[in-house]
Amino acid sequence: METLVVPVSVPPSAFRIPWPFDRVREGQADFLADARLAIADGRHLLAHAPTGIGKTAVALVASLEYALRANKLVLFLTLRQSQHRIAI
Q: Which pLDDT value is given to residue 83?
């Protein structure tokens, strides 16, 4: 496993994680904003949405952005190897 080292001098705007798909679909931008706010406030966010809406992408983008700024660790666990490959 490689360690990601982030220089302290990098401004917070540099911690934007790119969206992993071609475009942000309807509802995803609001969902991502909600996830970012919940993480920043230390709250939980419960998402009840159909398969394919982007729950995993939202969770990873929002949590990785916060973790890089705050020097935190994100653990992402999957049930199957195929899910792991998709996330990476």
A: 73
Residue 53 CB burial class (10 angstroms; 0-12, 13-18, ≥19)? middle
In contact, 67 and 15? CB cutoff 8 Å: no
pTM of the model: 0.74
Provide the b/e sequence for 11-45 (b: ≥16 CB within 10 Å): eeeeeeeeeeeeeeeeebeebbeebbebbeeeeee
55: part of which helix (H) or strand (E)?
Answer: helix 55-70
Instruction: Please write the tens of the pLDDT for every residue from 58-77.
Output: 999 999 999 999 999 999 88
